[in-house]
Specification:
It is a single chain. The strands form nine sheets. Strands 10, 12, 13, 14, 18, 19, 20 and 32 form an eight-stranded mixed β-sheet that branches. Strands 21, 23, 24, 25, 26, 27 and 29 form a seven-stranded antiparallel β-sheet that branches. The protein has no helices and 32 strands. It is elongated, with a radius of gyration of 28 Å. The protein has strands spanning 2-9, 13-14, 21-22, 29-30, 36-38, 51-52, 62-71, 78-85, 96-103, 115-118, 125-130, 134-144, 150-152, 158-162, 171-175, 179-181, 187-189, 193-203, 215-218, 222-225, 238-241, 278-281, 285-302, 317-323, 330-336, 345-348, 354-363, 368-371, 373-380, 448-449, 498-499, 510-512. By secondary structure, the protein is mainly beta. A hairpin with a 6-residue loop joins β24 and β25 (330-336).
Length: 520
């Protein structure tokens, strides 16, 4: 039997999938049109068919049709369907049904630059609902330098990345807790300052090793605050006490391969990093040495932030004593605590408390207490006007705006842990050095100007939302934990280069939540 091959086109559609309209009227090009194939009785034959998108098709438009096989004996024609997506789906105006948007802890949309996130009570979230399938999604935190440039915060580039697939209309809500992974895969606390979050999404059909095939959305500038401005720099303190890294309530302990070796040591409580911790038995004292005598007004206690799989284990009670020589102790106050997980507690001491040493006793009916940080507020004895100096924080090692040579490169995670889930409601970053050598990584993209206009960006949200569209229903507020995947899938720092200023063309698809308006 001999079959003549041809094809029939269906309608090409464009616009939102929920309200599609007709796109180009041109048809697809099918390589086998006009050819024939003969299939001997009782046997089979293979035919290779190449289908090319119609001329004039828009980015993200859907096209399709049928390859036809008409037999020479006038029997029924066979039809084999095909469907495709035209252009670069990452540049499509239909990539998102909602967002992405930057939102607060209470899931209120942030419509203007300058919002300050108090990291324990109000952490930045990114929220969006996809309108096309996505095959990879990642979040990057970008730190603004004093020169007005943006640097990738993490050596691993991504603070969160996932290869979980998302169907159309899937929602994603990611919260950044302010952590990132350094070059040694250790969690660090992001310095206070100005940031942007960048959401990178690869739609179905994209080559995840090519950066240009990701849609890149940038949030407005925002600042983060760790509630430590009233306190002495922890670098001036020394801590001692009987501490461990694991607890009876832990889901993972210090013996596991993922455990951070910095944890479970007294210095973890005074390293200005809330993502390290130590565990003490309820009622076991911790001694802080300030190096010299201070008039001490209060002490700050920060519970463990849930690292190494260890519960936060916040204290529910406290007692403080002060000493000038570390031998004779004076009661400086006591009280109860809320027991709220991960949130700092300020312990106000009695008037006149003075000493070089502070002994803190934390209690909990669970038998164990998690301690991320302890801080002291006060003035040197005899100097009532002295103020604490600025808290020193190690600067991230991601370097600024290099001219990266194109290299394969994808989306990975850098500071912070696991990711995507279909959720509701809302929560990325910047520049580095040479292009990576990992073959699984996306190709470097050209420099991008921070001053590029947002008015012509693809898929720009309409209006100025004050609340999240499609707000999560009861039990549907699934904030994704940060997926820390490490260097094997990290996008090279050199692939994301942001010029400080200028009029360069926006080569990366960037959508910016920069509309004028006020925060909800």
């Amino acid at each position: 039997m001999t079959y003549k091959l041809g094809h029939v086109d269906t309608v090409t559609t464009t616009g939102e999938s929920s309200k599609p309209t007709r796109g180009t009227t041109n048809g697809a090009t099918v390589s086998t049109d006009g050819t024939s194939v003969t299939v001997p009785a009782g046997s089979s034959a293979k035919v290779a068919v190449k289908v090319s998108a119609p001329e004039g098709i828009g980015n993200g438009d859907f096209y399709g049709g049928y390859v036809t096989l008409t037999p020479d004996n006038a029997a029924q024609t066979l039809r084999i369907p095909f469907v495709g997506v035209g252009g670069n789906l990452a540049e499509s105006k239909t990539l998102y049904k909602t967002g992405p948007v930057l939102a607060t802890e209470k899931l209120k949309v942030v419509n203007k630059a300058g919002h300050q996130f108090t990291m324990f009570n109000d952490r930045p979230h990114v929220y969006f609902k996809a309108d096309v399938p996505l095959i990879r999604s990642g979040l990057v935190a970008m730190r603004k330098t004093s020169e007005g440039k943006y640097e990738v915060l993490s050596d691993q580039v991504f603070i969160s990345m996932s290869d979980k697939g998302w169907n159309r209309t899937s929602t994603r809500l990611v919260r950044w807790d302010g952590s990132y992974l350094d070059a040694n895969n250790q969690l660090q606390q992001a310095p206070e300052g100005t940031y942007q979050l960048w959401e990178l999404n690869a739609p179905a059909g994209a080559d995840t090793t090519v950066l240009e095939q990701y849609n890149i959305w940038m949030s407005n500038d925002f600042t983060i605050d760790w509630r430590r401005s009233d306190y002495l720099p922890t670098i001036t303190l020394k801590a001692s006490g009987d501490v461990t890294a694991a607890a009876t309530t832990a889901t993972a302990d210090a013996s596991t391969s993922d455990a951070d070796p910095r944890n479970g040591k007294p210095e973890a409580m005074v390293d200005d990093n809330v993502f390290t911790y130590a565990v003490v038995s309820s009622g076991a004292p911790i001694t802080l040495d300030a190096g010299k005598v201070y008039n001490i007004s209060k002490v700050q206690y920060v519970p463990n932030q849930g690292n190494d799989g260890v519960d936060s284990m916040p204290a529910t009670g406290w007692k403080a004593e002060v000493s000038v020589d570390g031998k004779t102790w004076t009661d400086a106050g006591s009280g109860s605590l809320s027991g709220e997980a991960m949130v700092p507690q300020d312990l106000t001491l009695k008037s006149g408390a003075k000493g070089r040493f502070v002994r803190i006793t934390l209690t909990s009916d669970k038998g164990k207490v998690g301690v991320a940080e302890l801080r002291i507020a006060g003035t040197p004895a005899g100097d009532a006007t002295a103020q604490p100096t600025e808290q020193p924080t190690a600067a991230p090692t991601g370097s600024a705006a290099p001219t990266a040579a194109p290299t394969a490169q994808p989306t990975g995670s850098a500071a912070p842990t696991a990711q995507p889930t279909g959720s509701a409601a809302p929560t990325a970053q910047p520049t580095g050095s040479a292009a990576p050598t990992n073959p699984a990584q996306p190709t470097a993209a050209p420099s991008v100007s921070a001053s590029s206009s947002a008015s012509a960006l693809p898929g720009k949200p309409s209006g100025k939302p004050s609340a999240l569209p499609g707000k999560p229903g009861k039990g549907d507020d699934n904030r994704e934990p940060l997926a820390r995947t490490g260097t094997t899938i990290a996008i090279g720092i050199g692939a994301l280069v942001l010029a400080a200023a200028g009029a360069g063309a926006l080569a990366l698809r960037k959508r910016r939540d920069a509309e004028a308006g006020s925060e909800a």
